[in-house]
Amino acid sequence: EDKVVQSPLSLVVHEGDTVTLNCSYEVTNFRSLLWYKQEKKAPTFLFMLTSSGIEKKSGRLSSILDKKELFSILNITATQTGDSAVYLCASTPGAGSYQLTFGKGTKLSVIP
Amino acid sequence: EAGVTQSPTHLIKTRGQQVTLRCSPISGHTSVYWYQQALGLGLQFLLWYDEGEERNRGNFPPRFSGRQFPNYSSELNVNALELEDSALYLCASSLLGGAGTEAFFGQGTRLTVV
Description:
Chain A is mainly β and 112 residues long. Helix content of chain A is 0%, strand content 58%.
């Protein structure tokens, strides 16, 4: 059975801190790993990682995938209160669909 | 461009009743996925429809079913509701086979079973 595990489950930081969120996976027919941000209801897409060792960046957020060690990290630098959300990691199978296997998420709270 | 739309946004049902949730994908997307997000369990894959056919289903009982219409919109039906069916039901859409792009999620339907 495919499994995605995120850590920590929750995290409280102060504005300006840098955080690292972890995601490990055990997935057959792995194709890619996705990160989503869920603030209220709809998860919003952050990154898709397919190749190992290549960092994806978007502003203060960045992510990297290690296909040998089967994990990914999401970094957020200079955190802001607007970064408070649940961050979800998910894997996609090699079958060419978005039948995603999600981790339980990391709840990030950024306090002023 | 309109995103994935779901209806209704909230509903309350009684145990044993039946419910139908609806999802309209982004224009041009042919694949629709349904997920259940119950408290403490994270998002779990329910069903995948593509080109009108059920392509795969997750580890849920047969009382969870659905269909996809020729315009690619989709319905999720849940029969004989149980208390543990209370959850946020999210629909996502993608291009055929998920080629080259991510799946986009709707705002979800919050179902409460009492």
